[in-house]
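for the recovery benchmark. tokens below, seq after
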């Protein structure tokens, strides 16, 4: 299994970060793919196969850690691409939410 679980939707409270600029305050770090729960069940193949998929966005995936679970909010295409290249980790900005 690539991910801890495949989910649908965001079970955590709204954190108010909607723009790339909002996420830039969160430092990136490596996370293991096997620790991530996805928040989407489907992947747009155009995003996966595009050479410039991060040209207008963040270079790092966005992960929200809530109640000890790491949810992949944005960057599913990056995570799948890492898995296809047999890389067990992904660089992501991890926002830790408290209850």
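predicted aa per position
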């Amino acid at each position: 299994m690539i991910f801890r679980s495949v989910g649908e939707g965001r079970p955590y409270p709204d954190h108010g970060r909607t723009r790339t600029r909002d996420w830039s305050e969160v430092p990136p770090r490596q996370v293991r793919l096997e620790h991530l729960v996805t928040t989407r069940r489907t992947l747009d193949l155009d995003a996966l196969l595009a050479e410039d998929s991060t040209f207008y966005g963040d270079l790092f995936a966005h992960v929200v850690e809530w109640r000890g679970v790491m949810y992949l909010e944005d960057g599913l295409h990056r995570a799948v691409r890492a898995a296809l290249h047999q890389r067990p980790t992904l660089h992501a900005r991890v926002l830790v939410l408290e209850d």
